[in-house]
Design brief:
535 residues, alpha/beta, Udp-n-acetylmuramoylalanyl-d-glutamate--2,6- Diaminopimelate Ligase, Chain: A, domain 1, 4 domains, 6-stranded parallel beta sheet, 24 strands, 36% helix, 22% strand
Length: 535
């Protein structure tokens, strides 16, 4: 069963991470092989919540680009270097390929063999043979008579004229391979000369006294039904395929290589067949250019976002199975209909609660605890303008399951996680920042939650310097920073210089960096819309 990855946006917060985990549990209960992931470093609040309720931080998902391993290539299609020429060609023919990776005993790639190379090897074959006893049996459809050696290395000699003439002109050596029919005098001489192998054609017999001497001299003997002519013709096909390898063509493609990069490389190389290997050079199979349309796209479920810019790298190459979100409808599109659940509530976990109800799956206490934490985080403990009566109802139901008070849990979360003393201004700004696009400009808004804003307000100049630097490196038109004070029920707003006229138009002519906006707690509902509506 294919795995389905569940993840939130690129700057993961508590709601996106906990909703990914809670949805993973639900999907697994429904028989789906789901796995929660994150797209970035989780913040201190999320780390505390997961640790407090004994959950591991989900693994990081770098991208969902198509890789070679996601393409329907010919897995496990390769041949041993000790396979015969005939066996290799048979495998190629059965699999309708013109090339085949060759591997050693550890399945590590050592070369590629092509039909063209095999043809050339057969045509150019001399009388040298390097193979195994077993390969010869298979190629000649022969039977074992005497076997003393597994490897057979030698020069082929075939009897094609009178025995007396042959014996007068031929001196045997111990690395000779004799192909012979019913020529007893030649067989006797060969055995006495201790040659490597005797191949008896036409199912010829051998005298008993010759057999005894052959055993003493450890002579390998094979009997085939082929004629001498056919045996000579077929014997070259028993050669080890490694003898024909072209080592100048030892190109490979890594199984983890990006599909698009492979296509670019293939244009330059111009080959049809590419051996696929892993990082240890172990051969995984063969990919042909005609296989590249068989794509097994990674399956993903998006939670707490539905915009490409906020999602995983390579999303356009993945198969989006489902979207669960509580933000405005973004620019995500799919080629097929999907389940898209979007509700005007304060937290993604609120939506997931109803998914549990609809599927009649009981919510375990530990899952309910992180769901409750996610709602507390995204609604600032039900005080944010994004909070709905639905959120409040779900919180009450989760309190029943967990036996926790949302107020007490919120105080614990804020006390343990909103410590900004050990972080730089740059780290704080980047811990929760999101990008947006108006019809006329692009911008980012960062939000920092704190119980004690004075610590940050005293560093105003450093804040302004950092957001200016961030703007230059982010390729957006301007940056907004909202320092949200939970204790004061409002936010302090900072912005880059080039956004001053926009800020003044929105909040008033006397607006200055560091101004306090009473009641402004939600970036999504109270700040972003003000900029999105500007012409």
């Amino acid at each position: 069963m294919d795995k389905v990855y569940i993840f939130g946006h690129r700057n993961p917060d508590t709601d996106s991470v906990t909703s990914s985990i809670s949805l993973e549990y639900l999907k697994k209960e429904l028989g789906i092989n789901a796995e929660a992931r994150t797209l970035g470093e989780v913040n201190e609040e999320t780390k505390f919540v997961l640790k407090y309720f004994n959950f591991d931080i989900p693994k990081y998902l770098n991208d969902v680009h198509l890789k070679i391993k996601d393409i329907g290539y010919r897995k496990n299609l390769f041949i041993s270097e000790y396979a015969s020429v005939e066996e290799t060609y048979s495998v190629m023919n059965d699999n309708n390929v013109t090339g085949l990776p060759v591997v050693n005993s550890l399945n590590k790639f050592i070369g590629i063999i092509t039909a063209k190379t095999i043809l050339k090897g057969v045509i150019d074959f001399t009388n040298s043979l390097s193979t195994s006893y077993e390969n010869i049996l298979k190629s000649l459809k022969a039977k074992e008579v005497l076997r003393f050696d597994e490897d057979i290395l030698g020069n082929i000699i075939a009897v094609s004229y009178r025995s007396t003439t042959f014996l007068e002109t031929m001196n045997f050596s111990n690395d000779d391979i004799l192909i012979v029919g019913d020529r007893h005098s030649i067989i006797e001489e060969a055995i006495n000369s201790k040659i490597k192998l005797i191949i008896l054609t036409d199912n010829s017999s051998i005298k008993e006294e010759y057999m005894l001497t052959a055993k003493e001299n450890k002579i390998n003997i094979i009997r085939t039904g082929y004629s001498t002519f056919m045996a000579i013709k077929k014997i070259s096909l028993s050669n080890y395929i490694k003898n024909l390898l072209e080592h100048s063509r030892n190109y490979t493609v890594l199984e983890g290589k990006y599909y698009n990069e492979f296509l670019e490389d293939a244009k330059v190389l111009g080959y049809n067949n590419y051996p696929v290997v892993d990082n240890d050079n172990v051969c995984k199979g063969l990919i042909r250019l005609t296989d590249t349309n068989k794509k097994n796209r990674k399956k993903v479920i998006l939670v707490d976002h539905n915009e490409f810019e906020q999602s995983v790298v390579g999303l356009d190459e993945a198969s989006i199975e489902e979207v669960i979100d509580h933000h405005k409808i973004g620019d995500i599109s799919t080629s097929n209909p999907i389940n898209f659940r979007n509700m005007a509530v304060g937290s993604t976990n609120t939506i997931i609660y109803y998914l549990y109800l609809e599927n009649r799956v009981e919510i375990p206490k530990n899952i309910a605890s992180i769901m409750l934490s996610g709602i507390i985080s995204d609604t600032i403990n039900l005080t944010s303008p994004t909070t709905t009566e639905t959120d409040k109802f779900v919180v009450s139901k989760l309190e029943e399951i967990t036996e926790l008070s949302h107020d007490k849990l919120a105080n614990k979360i804020y006390k343990e996680s909103l410590n900004i003393k050990n972080k730089t201004i740059k780290e704080l700004i980047n811990s929760d920042i999101k990008a947006f696009q108006n019809n006329h400009f692009s911008f980012k808004i960062s939000q920092i939650l704190t119980m004690n804003p004075i610590e940050l307000l005293n560093k105003k100049e450093e804040i302004l310097t950092e957001i200016e630097k961030l703007k230059e490196n982010s390729h957006v038109d301007f940056i907004i920073l909202s320092i949200t004070s939970i204790s004061e029920n409002g936010s302090y707003i900072f912005y880059t210089k080039n956004a001053k006229h926009l800020i003044q138009n929105i909040f008033g002519i006397d607006s200055e960096n560091g101004m306090f906006l009473k009641g402004f707690l939600s970036r999504k509902k109270q700040i972003v819309p003000l900029f999105m509506e500007l012409d």
